[in-house]
């Protein structure tokens, strides 16, 4: 719990305790005033007072009135109309008792304290004025004496009104502050409730976001591994199979057979190395030791030696280091494009052009092979070709680039991968 909440809780406890004490005094004081007045009537009778017996009878009736409304039915205090009846009866008994004996001014004084809890705001002033008149009559020596000296009685009434009015004013201000404080405490409680609900909702949202992020991470890693497996193991295994098939066809010629077997072994070792680097999410070995243009030249040379097709690699613009992910994307695109040429194109020549421009780097791979008909449908997945172009497009799109494919039957194929020229480390 915060310090503000603890302070509010402490203030609420003190306010509740004060209200409990106020409610107790509200119910006890009438009996105290009535008992004190009755005691003085019995011990020190005032001159020109009513006889003791009828005075005590009026006092007993007043006591029963209070018992009925306050003691036996404490819940009635929230019923304003009923409590207005109680207050009118209280003032009636106070007037009668003050007329019977001035000592009951101690009881009439209760009219000040009971005006606030039981009367609406517009009637409190009337209750205070009436109480001031009764108290002034008591202070003047009783009804008979006060009326015989009415100027003095008026002065006493004005004095009581000033004193009671001041007290009433401050009491009303205190009541307004109390209402404001209760409203603020209610608003604070509502704000705390909403804050608690918001925290709970945020906790649930946070957990949901964590779950979604974890699922997205798993999906992204699966896609990455699928691309890496295709670009390393699948292409390597395809090359190995091709070399072994060629070795099978040339087993009568020892030199050709040995060359194809050696090529298959080299492909197997290279694929194994690349697979391990892919699992560890490490850049291809050629990019670790060479710049991208050199890596493409090396790739084109190896591919030509394996497939017996001439591959020309050219670079335009000023080569510069790129972001590692961008260089890996272009290298993998070149590998996939050459793999597709070897499997499907039956080409006699392939050209790779790496173009460095101000904001974009483009890799173009063109062949003079058989080509194919471009449609809106994905390519068939024979020999993995469909997934190859899909993986290539995913790679290029992932770094904010675009992949374009142009082809027609008998007219060869051109693949262009354009990616942002994001800067990388030193070359």
Automatic annotation (TrEMBL):
Location within or outside the cell: Cytoplasm
Catalyzed chemical reaction(s): ATP + protein L-histidine = ADP + protein N-phospho-L-histidine
Cofactor: [4Fe-4S] cluster
Iron-sulfur listed as a keyword: yes
SUPFAM superfamilies in the record: ATPase domain of HSP90 chaperone/DNA topoisomerase II/histidine kinase
Lineage of source species: Bacteria, Bacillati, Actinomycetota, Actinomycetes, Micromonosporales
Originating organism: Micromonospora arida
Pfam families membership: HATPase_c (PF02518), HisKA_3 (PF07730)
Keyword Metal-binding assigned: yes
Keyword set, alphabetical order: 4Fe-4S, Cytoplasm, Iron, Iron-sulfur, Kinase, Membrane, Metal-binding, Transferase, Transmembrane, Transmembrane helix, Two-component regulatory system
Designated name of the protein: Oxygen sensor histidine kinase NreB
CDD domains associated with the record: HATPase_UhpB-NarQ-NarX-like
